[in-house]
Each structure stands twice: as structure tokens, then as C-alpha cells.
Design a protein that fits this description.
The chain has 9 helices and no strands. It is mainly α. The N and C termini lie far apart (62 Å).
Length: 154
């Protein structure tokens, strides 16, 4: 019984280390960003590696937001605005509570990952910012409008 526990614990530790090795900064097989545990390019880090490959191919900085083309409707419109105007969203507070729940510092942080795709408040705030910026409103007015429409203590 004791031997079975030791073998299974050792196997689990080796398997976990093999999956986490590239994330911990360990060298990868053949200098492949996808790591040694990938099978035919399918693994947990495929999207990250493909994004890095695309950024390197462009010779540009990594994306500040997710690719808007993976979304549809208002969410796509919000991600597109975030991609095109990160300087505006970086100055706006998000009122959905993600600052406490996910550590977001501003509305742009919602669009760096999938959070903006699943949150109606984030989408509403970004689309309001888009409309107002297209009308020439300064960031201060956009910030006040978002606070009036989305802050919980209205």
C-alpha cells in the first residue's frame, strides 16, 4: 500500500512538473515555445505560443487586448474599440467589481482576457466610451458618464 502511494505521488509530481516546466522558465524542446509536452501542437499553451509567433512575425509589441475577430456583435465592437483606443480605456474605471474579484486596474484590463466577453457591464462601459469618444467627448466626460450609468451607488 505504501509503495503504491509513493509511486502514484511520484508520477503525479513528474507529470505536473512536465506540464509546468515551460511556464516556470525551463528550457523547451527544440526551442519550441509550446514546450516538450505538446502533442502535434495541441496543448494548454498553443494559443499563447501562436500569439507570440504572430507578434514576432509582425515585429511588433504583443497585443494589448484579445483579437476582436474571435467575437461577434456588441462584444466584438467593444474589443475592437479597446484594441484601437487602449489609451482611453486605460483611464476609465470598470464598475462590475472586477477590480476586487480579478485585480483589474482599469477598463482596458477587462479586454486583455475573456472577462470583457462575458460581462455586460464591461461591454456597456466600452460601448458608451466608444460613442462618446466618436462625438469628441474628453476622457473626463466619458468617465463621469460611465460613473453615472454603471456605478452601484446611483
Amino acid at each position: 500500500m505504501r509503495r503504491a502511494i509513493i509511486y502514484s505521488s511520484s508520477f503525479a509530481a513528474i507529470l505536473a512538473l512536465a506540464y509546468l516546466w515551460p511556464l516556470l522558465g525551463g528550457s523547451t524542446a527544440n526551442d519550441n515555445a509550446r514546450g516538450a509536452m505538446c502533442i502535434a501542437g495541441h496543448c494548454c499553451c498553443t494559443a499563447r505560443a501562436e500569439a507570440a509567433d504572430a507578434a514576432a512575425a509582425k515585429g511588433s509589441q504583443p497585443r494589448l487586448t484579445l483579437d476582436p475577430n474571435q467575437f461577434v456583435g456588441p462584444v466584438k465592437e467593444a474589443y475592437t474599440f479597446a484594441e484601437q483606443h487602449p489609451e482611453i480605456l486605460a483611464e476609465l474605471h470598470c464598475y462590475c467589481g472586477c477590480d476586487k474579484a480579478e485585480g483589474h486596474q482599469n477598463l482596458l484590463d477587462c479586454y486583455r482576457g475573456m472577462h470583457g466577453a462575458s460581462c455586460e457591464i464591461c461591454t456597456g462601459e466600452a460601448l458608451l466610451a466608444k460613442r462618446m469618444s466618436e462625438q469628441g467627448s474628453p476622457v473626463d466626460q466619458i468617465r463621469d458618464a460611465i460613473r453615472r450609468n454603471f456605478a452601484q451607488d446611483n
